[in-house]
Write a structure and sequence with these properties.
The chain is α+β, with helices and mostly antiparallel strands and 301 residues long. It has helices at residues 15-30, 35-44, 88-99, 107-114, 120-138, 160-176, 180-193, 206-232, 236-249, 254-266, 270-287, 294-300; strands at residues 63-66, 72-75, 78-79, 105-106, 143-146, 149-152, 157-159. The chain folds into three domains: 1-60, no CATH class; 63-158, Arc Repressor Mutant, subunit A (Orthogonal Bundle), CATH 1.10.10.10; 161-300, Serine Threonine Protein Phosphatase 5, Tetratricopeptide repeat.
Length: 301
């Protein structure tokens, strides 16, 4: 990324110039340069996010929704806090909407997830009331309704889940094409967003729990794949970073301890390799009741 980004200050008179302004703004935000100035410029020209900008967390989004780890909502950059009773059902509606993909979710599906034991008409009535309350919390424009289906507006709302899934899928595709540099770049972006399990301890809805496990498995599988490829290319320091993130996600994954030990061995870091093995041995024995596998032990011997 070119760090010498020049932002246009003059007014724009046509679409071509606005396109140039958008490009400059995106470049600056991606480089994390003069973010506050760039946000003011975006608001001044009333620029709207397109497909190329919808993953940028630092775009001036009216609403940001964080679901990976601690659940939180930001309205115009300020964390949404409740002075009175927490709006549990509207927030649960938002969580379920996101867990189901955030796009074109039918009324019937939402009602079934939130009020499984209610009669059809009662559930639909409850959904209408809850949707009204949710829109009062985060803005009417945040939820799009069309032909009996609901979507989270991609022009009004940013969510860490949407960006995470985009970066992870891009990393997987780049790895399949044997573009290791690009794959590692997007893997790092995905790992940075994954601060914890999806809506951890925030919902007991089946669709939320299912999404959480799916994301966890997909990330762990990709970390294993990309780190294996990094090791094959003698990029051991980067592989160690990946293995450490994998253990942040699930610290009982013996394969990631084994990967770290292998990398430290290749780097001549014997003390670090032994330290990793001891940590692995202690944790597996304490939690699962057995020692590391013969394959792991062989790396130390």
């Amino acid at each position: 990324m070119d760090k010498n980004v020049t932002l246009p200050a003059q007014d724009c008179d046509d679409g071509l110039q606005l396109t140039d302004v958008r490009r400059h703004c995106v470049e600056a935000l991606e480089a994390d340069m003069d973010v506050n100035v760039v946000r003011q410029l975006i608001k001044h020209f009333n620029l709207h996010p397109d497909k190329s900008t919808r993953m940028l967390e630092n775009w001036p989004w009216p609403v940001r929704i964080y679901t990976l780890g601690d659940f939180s909502i930001e309205i115009d950059g300020q964390v949404l806090r409740f002075t009175g009773k927490t709006q549990k059902k509207p927030l649960e509606l938002l969580k379920v909407l996101i867990a189901l993909g955030g796009r074109n979710i039918s009324k019937a599906r939402l009602a079934e997830e939130l009020w499984p034991d209610a009669e059809g008409d009662d559930a639909q009535h409850s959904l209408a009331i809850t949707l009204h309350r949710l829109r009062k919390l985060i803005g009417h424009e945040a939820i799009i309704q069309s032909q009996g289906q609901f979507s989270l507006s991609p022009e009004y709302c940013w969510s860490d889940l949407r960006s995470f899934e985009y970066y992870l899928l891009t990393a997987i595709n780049e790895l399949a094409l044997d573009h290791l540099n690009e794959a590692w770049h997007f893997t790092q972006k995905a790992m940075q967003l994954y601060k914890g399990a999806f809506l951890a301890n925030n919902s007991t809805s089946y669709c939320v729990l299912s999404m959480s496990e799916r994301l966890r498995r997909k990330l762990l599988h990709h970390i294993d794949s990309v780190c294996t490829r990094l090791c094959q290319n003698n990029r051991y320091e980067q592989a160690i970073q990946g293995y450490l993130k994998g253990l942040d996600v699930d610290d009982l994954q013996e394969r990631f301890y084994r990967g770290q030990i292998y990398c430290h061995n290749q780097l001549g870091q014997k003390a670090e390799a032994i330290s990793v093995y001891r940590k692995c041995h202690a944790l597996l024995l304490a939690v699962l009741g057995y020692s590391p596998s013969a394959e792991t032990k062989a790396l130390i011997q």
